[in-house]
Amino acid sequence: MTAYGVKISRMPVLTIVPPMPGAERRFRPFTEFVHASGWDTEFVQLDWSGPQPNFGSRALFGQVGAQTAEKVVMGFSLGALYSHLGALRARHLILGSISPFFLEDDDEPQRWMISYTAGNADTPADVLVGAKEDDQMHRRATAVRDFYRQCTYTVVPDADHELWHPNYLQTIKAALDRVGSRG
After folding, report:
1. Which residues fall within 8 angstroms of residue 28, CB to CB, at 6 or more apart?
2. What pLDDT, in 10s, does the model give residues 55-87?
């Protein structure tokens, strides 16, 4: 459908929080998969000042929050961490393999001095972790799962820390189908 020569999308939109600079290009196969699943995509635009990840700054969290209110938001790895701490007014979160760089992750010398409990426990969430990821990733994913009041938790079969794994993609599609059916 067009209005005044501008294409109007009737597909729901998945807002993706990038884990690092340049993610739009690297995520192209993922966005094509999401489009084939009946969703449009947009990326949160972040000011990547300084070295990344910048453990001394919380600036990215506010930038994420300003662009994600009332949206379905997805982040993978560091993008999941940024989503969890920044997208506090999202309609729904999909957090894939959330990075263990919170205050509680004291086995990580480089981390943010902010608790994972600084997220919004009332936001409905899907929390995903690859079955073959290490124990630290599973501990953080389990803690984040337990934090959310409305959560679907999936250990993705046969997957490492790899968004492109076919089982990971199918798990995300199932989450999108579930969220999309709720309007």
Report:
1. none
2. 989 999 999 999 999 999 999 999 999 999 999
- Nearest Cα residue to 96 out of 153, 47, 56: 153
Task: Annotate 45-71 with DSSP letters as a single string.
Answer: -----SSSS-TT--HHHHHHHHHHTTS
d(CA 70, CA 72): 7
CB 154 within 8 A of CB 127: yes
What one-character-per-residue DSSP string does 134-160 give? -HHHHHHHHHHHHH-SSEEEEEETT--
User: Of the candidates 30, 55, 71, 41, which has an alpha carbon nearest to the alpha carbon of residue 166?
Assistant: 30
The answer to whether 55 and 101 have CB atoms below 8 angstroms apart is yes
Tokens of 50: 């300084």
Whether a cis peptide bond, with omega within 30° of 0, leads into 29 is no
Whole-structure pTM value: 0.93
Burial class of residue 58, CB neighbours in 10 A (0-12, 13-18, 19+): middle
Question: What confidence tens digit (pLDDT) does each residue in 106-133 have?
Answer: 888 888 999 999 999 999 999 999 999 9
